[in-house]
Amino acid sequence: MKTILSLSLILMFTFNGLNAKAFQPQQGATGDRLKALIDSARKEKSDSLRLVINNVFFNELTAYLKESPASNKMFDSLNIGVITSTEAKVTLFNWNLQQNNGTNIYFLIIRNNATNQVIPMKPMHALQELSEETIFRDANWPGGLYYRIIFRTDLSGSCYTLLGWDGFSRTTSRKTIDALSFDSNGSPVFGAPVFRTRDGIRNRVVSEYASQASFTQSYDRQKVTLSNVRKSQRKITDEIIVLDRLVPMNESLTGQRWAYVPAGNVYDGFIVFNKLWSFVEDIAPRNPAPSGKEKKSRKPVSYDLFPPQ
After folding, report:
1. What does the radius of gyration of the chain's CA atoms come to, in whole angstroms?
2. Structural domain for 146, as ranges
3. CB 3.0–4.6 Å: which of 80, 139, 170, 238 could bond 95 by disulfide?
4. Where are the residues of the annotated region Disordered (predicted)?
5. Residue 259 in contact with residue 253, Cβ under 8 Å?
6. Residue at 234 is within a domain
7. 191-219: pLDDT as tens digits
8. Predicted TM-score of the model (pTM)
């Protein structure tokens, strides 16, 4: 009780020292007001007050998205992540607040343009353990910042593929490949059995590595040749997910993710094969040259599809 009362007094006196009216929920939020709110949240030094101001921003942005279409120019000024699927049916609005201990709280609003639904997700602290098996429902989600949303008609089920980043702690970061779908009620579902890995089918892929390392996880068009498949399926020019291969700094640190860094010029990836994102090893990623300009002497990249079909 004393802790709750003390926090209330701190917030009350802090608001008295600010323009308290600016942080009260209002109808008809404008771009300028939203910018003032998020800027204030980012500048605030108190974790508690930072979250209070951000929650006002979160609620007013949600209301704004429900009321009217928002311009890209407005979101540029807010400096939050805004990504839209290639067929323009889903848009994600996400951002983070870093706490004084170096951890992050993540915020996400989903706009389903096909159904005109605006769906605010629960604020999520960075999870201590992010399982590749878990399915998230009921406004729960893995947390993180999504920077790419991919829609493939040749993927099993009606789902989107998300590439994300999570500044998990001061020592480790994570990048994820996840799946987003919507249930019969239009509610978001995170995770789906569409990832064929070396350990079997998983609902997502998680790569955890040293926070000071630069780890590549991108989606690019590549020209490749597969092994262990029918001859008619070997040559592929397609968009694939390309990953740095992570290795420990030395063998004695195997299993300690804070010590994992990119091997350097060694890449793995995921390619859509038989309606699943299938893991492939030892790729030499490159963008194909324009038709008619590629040198005939260039040998196609060849690597094994894992596991063998």
Report:
1. 22
2. 80-304
3. 80
4. 286-309
5. yes
6. yes
7. 999 999 999 999 999 999 999 999 999 99
8. 0.82
Total domains, the chain = 1
Query: Helix/strand/coil (H, E, C) string of the chain?
Result: CHHHHHHHHHHHHHHHCCCHHHHCCCCCCCHHHHHHHHHHHHHCCCHHHHHHHHHHHHHHHHHHHHHCCCCHHHHHHHCCEEEECCCCCEEEEEEEEECCCCCEEEEEEEEECCCCEEEECCCEECCCCCCCCCCECCCCCCCCEEEEEEECCCCCCCCEEEEEEECCCCCEEEEEEEEEEECCCCCEEECCCCEEECCEEECCEEEEEECCCCCCEEEEEEEEEEECCCHHHCEEEEEEEEEEEEEECCHHHCCCHHHEEEEEEEEEEEEEECCEEEEEEEECCCCCCCCCCCCCCCCCCEEEECCCC
Judged against a pLDDT cut of 70, whether residue 11 lies above it is answered with no
> Could you tell me if residue 231 is inside a domain?
yes
At residue 26 the predicted structure's pLDDT band, cuts being 50, 70 and 90, is: low
Question: Which residues, at least 6 apart from 25, have a Cβ–Cβ distance to it below 8 Å?
Answer: 56, 59, 60
Report pLDDT for 109. Answer: 97
Using CA atoms, how far apart are residues 281 and 243, in angstroms rounded to an integer? 10
Assess if residue 200 is contained within a domain: yes
Question: What tokens does 283 get?
Answer: 């790729």
In whole angstroms, give the CA distance from residue 105 to residue 210: 20
Q: Residue 194 has which token pair?
A: 């569409």
CA distance 5 to 9: 6
Q: Which amino acid is at 287?
A: N
Q: How far apart are CA 96 and CA 280, in angstroms?
A: 32
- pLDDT for 229 equals 67
- pLDDT tens-digit map of 272-285: 988 999 998 888 76
Residue 29: pLDDT band by 50, 70, 90 thresholds?
low
